[in-house]
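hey so u asked for the seq, here:
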Amino acid sequence: IFDKLKIRIDGYDKVNKIVYFYITGFIDSCSGIAFTESNHYPKTNGCGRINLWEKLNNNWYRYAAD
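ran it, structure tokens below
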């Protein structure tokens, strides 16, 4: 199964300069990783309210939304 997974861009927040990525192959995937130049913690994204925003490294975060 893991050889069929691909990472795709989920969205881009121009105001806060955040790029959202998610792993394809999961139904209704509203979680993934995000890159932000500003280190801004967003309240929402295209999936809804952000309920997880965990720093991974430098400007990279793990996120989940509902």
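The chain has no helices and six strands. The beta strands are 7-13, 18-23, 31-36, 44-45, 48-57, 60-65.
lmk if thats what u needed
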